[in-house]
Structure formats: structure tokens, C-alpha cells
Amino acid sequence: MKNSHFIHLLKNQFNLSEDGEKMLEPRIKKIFMPKGTPLLRPREICRYIYFLESGFLRLYKENGEQQTTDFGCEGHFCAAVESLLNQSESEEGIICETDVKLYALHYYDLMMLEELSIEFLLLSKNLLSYYLLRLNQEKKVYLKGNATEKFKYVCKHYPGLVAHIKNKDMASYLGITQQSFSRMLKENLTKG
């Protein structure tokens, strides 16, 4: 199966059935994208939900300059969620920070699958729950934590990301200056 990694995850984490697999398989695109490739630009409509098999994505907004809003890494789902769910223009863009291998499911294919089988309604609900729980977990860290705690959270939940992201993009995500991030990075490296 060409989408076996993605299908395997859906079977194990979201209880996808054999019938569901047969319905889903032809609708998934396996994509290889080089570093620097935009998957979505601000003001475009997000048409796909992505699952990353390998590599890193960065979500950003443009407010005069780019402001990093989130990341995607191996084993994560990624989309400009508000745009995807409303099929409206996105405030966010999505760019490949490394070469990536991902699977893409078109929004309208997912809607069609939901109409064909209750299994896909449940799958959509479970994917949305997964995203909301992750978002809530991050919100707790970002409301209560300082930049160092946020950075440690990123390092724990996005292993290897820091080596592939520009300092200015990580600083933007943490809400600090590049200089402050450079100092924080040096301090964390010297502590081990």
C-alpha cells in the first residue's frame, strides 16, 4: 500500500476499519516537497489536511513580517484549521522548513467520506479532538510559562526542530527578540 504509514496510524490510533481503509486509500495523496516550498500562502483557502511522515512544517502569519504561529513534525496532522473547516481565506501560511514526506487528504474527499460512512464522521471527530487537546495543552504552557518553559515544551514535543528552524522564526514563535532567543539557546546548550 502506497499510504501504509498514514493508514497504519489511522488504524492504530483512530480504529480505521478495513472497509474504511479501502474507501480512504484512493483519496490520499503521498507528496514529497523540498525545503522552502509553500503548501499554503496567506489569503489562500486551505483545501487539505496533511499528515507528516517526515520533516518539519512551519505555520505563520504575515503582519508586515512573518510571525510563526505553529509547527508540524513527524507523526502530526497539520492544516490551517480555521480556513480548512470554514473553507475561507486563511490568515496563515504553511511552509516546508525541511524536505518533507506527507500525506494529503482533500477537504471535499473527507466530506464525501463522512456522507458515505459514519466511520468517517467519527474519524473527523477524533481528529478534531486530537487537535483541540493538543491546542489546549499548548495554551496552558503559553499562558503560564515564560519563554524558557515554552522553548523546553517545543524541544520536547518537536524533537529536532530547533536545528532546522531559523532563530528569527523560533524567536517569533516564543514572542521574544532574536537576541533574547540566542542568549536562551546558549544558556540551554551550556546547561546540557
Automatic annotation (TrEMBL):
<dbReference type="InterPro" id="IPR018490">
    <property type="entry name" value="cNMP-bd_dom_sf"/>
</dbReference>
<dbReference type="InterPro" id="IPR014710">
    <property type="entry name" value="RmlC-like_jellyroll"/>
</dbReference>
<protein>
    <submittedName>
        <fullName>Crp/Fnr family transcriptional regulator</fullName>
    </submittedName>
</protein>
<dbReference type="Pfam" id="PF00027">
    <property type="entry name" value="cNMP_binding"/>
</dbReference>
<feature type="domain" description="Cyclic nucleotide-binding">
    <location>
        <begin position="33"/>
        <end position="107"/>
    </location>
</feature>
<dbReference type="InterPro" id="IPR000595">
    <property type="entry name" value="cNMP-bd_dom"/>
</dbReference>
